[in-house]
Amino acid sequence: MREEVATLAGGCFWCTEAVFKDVIGVTEVESVYIGGSTENPTYKQVCGGDTGHAEAIRVTYDADAIRYGDLLDIFFATHDPTTLNRQGNDVGTQYRSAIFPHSDEQEAEAKAAIERNASEWPNPIVTTIEHADRWYPAEDYHQDYWDGEGQRNPYCLAVIPPKLRKLRKSFAERSKGASAEA
């Protein structure tokens, strides 16, 4: 196994975490705050929009099982990369669409993925490529959220199942859930 990390911000981290936990080759997903100036921010601070952080996920994956470019294609297909600082009713810079590359190779692949996925959307992709070395784990209650509290959260129940259906339909060969349903 060749372990690598991808850091992606696609709106609410509860939603992106649920999607990427269902991807074959992904071994861990952690909800984090990244891209801001406040040290050890809290959820309340990040939601206030003043810290500059994005709600993001750090995806640990087996690079022998799935390519970084495949993760980016899933990322672009399962959130709206054309809305600036917004995902659905979530509005603010903390919900921006951003890729935080860990290497020059990941940055080049991120640029290629933006170009590759542009034709899938009616509006231009506004996903940014940002460099941020400092990230902070979100509070414990945000981790594995969909597997627990999210199942009772009306927001999650409205947003996450359609994203998982899209993953399982469009990327069936990459989805743990699609292979379990087969």
Can you give me a brief rundown of this structure?
This protein has 182 residues and is of the alpha+beta class. Helix content is 34%, strand content 21%. It has helices at residues 13-21, 43-47, 68-77, 104-117, 154-170, 176-181, and strands spanning 3-10, 26-34, 54-62, 86-87, 90-91, 97-100, 128-129, 135-137.
Topology (elements, then pairings):
Blueprint: E1 3-10, H1 13-21, E2 26-34, H2 43-47, E3 54-62, H3 68-77, E4 86-87, E5 90-91, E6 97-100, H4 104-117, E7 128-129, E8 135-137, H5 154-170, H6 176-181
Parallel strand pairs: 6-7
Antiparallel strand pairs: 1-3, 1-6, 2-3, 2-8, 4-5
**Count of separate DSSP helical elements:** 6
- Count of distinct strands: 8
Task: Characterize the overall form.
Answer: globular
**Kindly, what is the distance between the CA atoms of the first and last residues, rounded to a whole number of angstroms?**
26 Å
The computed structural class is alpha+beta
Share of residues in helices: 25-40%
Radius of gyration, in angstroms, nearest whole number: 15 Å
Order of helices and strands: EHEHEHEEEHEEHH
Strand content: 15-25%
Assembly type of the shown chains? Answer: single chain
Largest sheet: 6 strands, mixed
Q: Are there runs of 5+ residues with pLDDT below 50, and where?
A: none
| Neighbour order of strands in the largest sheet | 7-6-1-3-2-8
**What's the overall average pLDDT, rounded?**
95
